[in-house]
Specification:
two-stranded parallel ribbon, alpha/beta, 316 residues, 11 helices
């Protein structure tokens, strides 16, 4: 099975390369990979402007498309909308159309749970069959790419697989998860004692990569949308508890009322950040498990432990 992979220098792509054979992989992107085993099979190209992938995709069976413009909080304006559309929608479709013309059998598109929306009511998780309700430019660009890919599948016979991850964490994770982990590592009392009734679905990078690999040749993955998580939802307080346990730190949480968070968010213009902290975003992965016979190989507790161990090593 010959694979073409984009986005291989990203958080998920770097981990994916650990599980594939360098001899059967072509990498498409603007930089050489960190893993030197893949350098000779790397085609340097700008996916957003490339028009002819004939030399890159000839003989390829499956494209795994991870590349895209990442979500940036507070990113707004017409220029941002155009940038997201160009990278996440237009470039994705150009690559997929070329793939179809050149006889590629399957196109795996790693999208985002933001296609479903920004939040859920408690214990009312998103499902793969829900109507799409993207809010920001990032989610809208991913949603449009999904729609056009599935239409392309009908027109050409290209097998399309869409994966919508929740928040991805694991060794080397950045952004909000890393910030919270760093805060917990200090061992100080934290003001999250009242954030115990929300629920969030997370997915370890190991579980996401395992699902991607499963979808490479699974016969029932064709033209399907799969939500993915660790299948274990946690509150913010529980998340801190798992982190504290893995770090060997005390888990002292102060009972700061939720209204204080909401007020602070409004005062400093960070209501979206506060909503992520105190709100819920759950996904139901029953369709993924039932269709593919897939079970996340790593538990949430194992994923947190692996992430913390890497965090400690990096500090040293």
């Amino acid at each position: 099975m010959n694979l073409a992979i984009t986005g291989y220098t990203g958080f998920v792509g770097t981990r994916l390369l650990e599980y594939v054979d360098p001899q059967s992989v072509t990498l498409l992107g603007r930089r050489y990979p960190f893993d030197k085993r893949f350098v000779k099979n790397t085609v340097l190209t700008d996916l957003a402007s490339q028009l002819d992938f004939k030399d890159s995709l000839s003989g390829i069976d499956v494209v795994i498309h991870l590349a895209g413009r990442a979500h940036i909080m507070g990113d707004s304006g017409l220029d941002s909308a155009e940038a997201y559309w160009k990278t996440n929608t237009s470039a994705t479709l150009a690559l997929a159309r070329q793939a179809a013309k050149l006889g590629v059998k399957r196109f795996i598109f790693v999208s985002s749970i933001k296609v479903n929306g920004e939040s859920t009511e408690l214990d009312m998780p998103f499902t793969a069959s829900d109507a799409k309700k993207p809010v920001d430019f990032y989610g809208q660009s991913k949603s449009e790419a999904e729609s056009q890919l599935l239409q392309l599948a009908k027109e050409t016979g290209l097998e399309v697989v869409i994966i919508r991850p929740t928040l991805v964490y694991g060794p080397g994770v950045k952004a909000n998860f890393a910030s919270l982990l760093k805060l917990v590592s200090k061992g100080l009392p934290l003001p999250f004692g009242c954030i115990k009734n929300n629920k969030r679905s997370l997915v370890s990078v190991k579980n996401l990569v395992h699902l991607i690999i499963t979808c490479i040749d699974h016969p029932k993955a064709v033209n399907q949308v799969f939500l993915v998580s660790d299948d274990h939802d946690v509150s913010t307080a529980s998340m801190v508890k798992y982190m504290s346990h893995a770090l060997g730190k005390s888990n002292r949480l102060l009972p700061v009322p939720l209204w204080c968070y909401r007020l602070a968010g409004k005062l400093v213009g960070k209501s979206d950040v506060v909503n992520r902290l105190i709100g819920s975003l759950q996904v139901d992965i029953s369709h993924t498990k039932d269709t593919l016979g897939w079970i996340p190989p790593q538990t949430l507790e194992q994923g947190f432990r692996e992430t913390v161990e890497a965090f400690i090593r990096n500090k040293k």
